[in-house]
DNA sequence: CGATTATTCAATTATTATATTGAATATATG
DNA sequence: CATATATTCAATATAATAATTGAATAATCG
């Protein structure tokens, strides 16, 4: 291959890969990817959770779709968006990892909003694998029930953090509780652990989230009769 | 945490992570990252190889630096840029992986410029690990010598593809040759294999590149007395 | 010191990205 | 069939990004 066509080849390749880069160049789109990593969701639902207008969310989802990072399934009035495949979540993981490793501001933001995070004694995936078979431990999925239905750690109980305080009596105090949620920067598990401890429970959080657990090749359970 | 501060937290987090996304939103910057994955290089050198003006390359490198994806070391008149750490290469790998998995156009571009690629019978990292200890095999690093010096597969010979034809007599015909280069989309190894076969050698290429080998935790050799 | 060289800076122009708004589309429901 | 609803589309104004140009810096070398 001569120099000119070599350069043309590289330009065409990078022009393709940059479609992915461009799709990642907006904070709303990153948040959408983060939400979609949990379960498929409708446009309006995503717009509401991410604090943006429906039209704006729709446009960003179309941008993500153009880069093939998400897919959509139509059902009646609704469009259910989902991540295209696990490679997309791994890409988001890679960004998170660079941010954690390289951007001091990420840690600063976390410290500002969650000042006593170190005290939560996060449990690693390896530790959690062991604890799954320990009947002195309860694993709690504190995400919204929808996301639990879309996939959860085998044996975990569904108890969304919003309902936790009202349903505390369901949890025995003689067992340690490991709460998990969407990911390392999700506050649900942090809040659950704080609440549980305030009520006299022994509690810790899983360091990561359900999608990280899944792409690590660890087992995920799904309730029957739900959407594929 | 109340809803308002929860949203502020998320916004500040995604605003940080998107610094990384934005840095990846330009084809020249992707190419610069790809080149820097091999070895540190000067601005002028990078500009020349990536076919851009020096001022433009300098600006893009500064953008990458602002996102903490690259670092620079000054030595006299020169600034030597390098990837900040392995997490940055893994991020580029993740983009490549999504592109390969999701973008049909990537495969189309590869087919257009390298039409008989399947015939190269690429060797996986696992296979190559075995072949390293096989004395019927020669492993050939066909990248520029600079990149070989910055790190190569133990036992590999340095024979840049540009010099290959002139130095064919250095290679015995009774041994199989495995050529490797910068990565899966680099044409150096493809060209080396084609040339070698045309001269009666048995030759295949390594499917990936040296940086992929390195971050897979496989051994890398470095010549003494070179830059850190 | 003056000339050379690698790199960065600053200004300019063209292009692209973004959020908002209101309308359009299409499906479901009574 | 009329209404309601979820989503998309189109137009617009604003902001961010990018390449080019020529000048400015700063280190090296004769």
Keyword list:
homodimer; 228 residues; alpha/beta; Arc Repressor Mutant, subunit A; Oxidized Rhodanese, domain 1; 3-stranded antiparallel β-sheet; 11 helices; 7 strands; DNA-binding
Would you kindly provide a written description of the structure presented here, covering whatever features stand out?
The structure is a homodimer of 228-residue chains. With 228 residues, chain A is of the alpha/beta class. Chain A has 2 domains: 86 residues, Arc Repressor Mutant, subunit A (Orthogonal Bundle); 99 residues, 3-Layer(aba) Sandwich (Oxidized Rhodanese, domain 1), CATH 3.40.250. The first copy, chain A, is 49% helix and 15% strand. A 4-stranded parallel β-sheet of chain A has the order 5-4-6-7, with helices on both faces. A 3-stranded antiparallel β-sheet of chain A has the order 1-3-2. In chain A, helix 3 crosses helix 4. The mean pLDDT of chain A is 95. Chains A and B meet through helix 1, helix 2, helix 5 and helix 6 of A and helix 1, helix 2, helix 5 and helix 6 of B.
